[in-house]
Amino acid sequence: MPELKQIDSSRVDDILAAVANDGACIALDVLDVELCQHLMSDFNQALGEMRWGEDELGYRNEFYGERTKRLHGLFSKSPRMVDVLTNPLFLELGKRLFIDSKMADDIRLSNAELMVLNQGQVVQAFHADAASWRRVQQAEEHEILISANCALTEFTATNGATRVVPGSHRWPSDREPQDDEITLATMPRGAALIYAGNVLHSGGANHEVEARVGLYLGYIVSWLRPIENQLITNNPADILALPEQAQRLLDVSPGGFTVFA
Ligand SMILES: O=C(O)CCC(=O)C(=O)O
Ligand SMILES: [Fe+2]
After folding, report:
1. How far is the CA of 254 from the centre of ligand 1 (A)?
2. How many Å lie between the centroid of ligand 1 and the Cα of residue 38?
3. Cα→Cα distances 52→230, 231, 259, 261, Å
4. pLDDT at 132
5. What is the pLDDT of residues 31-50, one digit of tens each?
6. What fold, for 6-249?
């Protein structure tokens, strides 16, 4: 089975090299364990009001599964989300991949999603997250999306660790992974799976009693349309109270309707 490299979050060059080669890696010590605990308790109330297999608005999505909860509008639910959004590793990865490469003038958050997999959740279908903009992705050689799935609980082989297909970011879109090409993103709490928009991956199956909790953030080039509109999923006043850098990441331009492409 191929393995993902585990790299300390301070080693940005090595993380970028692993993402370029394998399409993904595990960055260690991205979020403090204490921050993970606070985030979990901040989201608890909203999670308690949701039913398994549904999002907050009561919509069901077959792609996500029957034993999962997907929470959005995270900035109004936790004042600590702004620290995750502006995590130095994520911003540096976005800068190096999108701005330094001249793909874009700026970085945007596409969405932030809490992904809770409960006991009995089965494996998700393999997919590439950049398929949200597949016509653009087909036309571009460079990545347009870089994602982080942060482990707010430990990710294990039996509780739903994300399945990843190293190298698949370079595959033709119709190639399907064989069993021996798939690896599991097992990682300790506070680590994050960092992966390219084009790499094949899927949620794993949870056979344990305790839920597995991943906090997803996807960063895109600034000229793409984010898949979550933060001014709708959150209370707009909460977003407009954030520092300017955070507002720009969330696609708000206080000075007007400018697109920083
Ligand atoms: O739950 C996971 O680990 C991954 C989920 C995922 O890839 C998705 O919903 O796009
Ligand atoms: Fe995904």
Report:
1. 32
2. 22
3. 23, 25, 38, 39
4. 95
5. 999 999 999 999 999 999 99
6. Jelly Rolls (2.60.120)
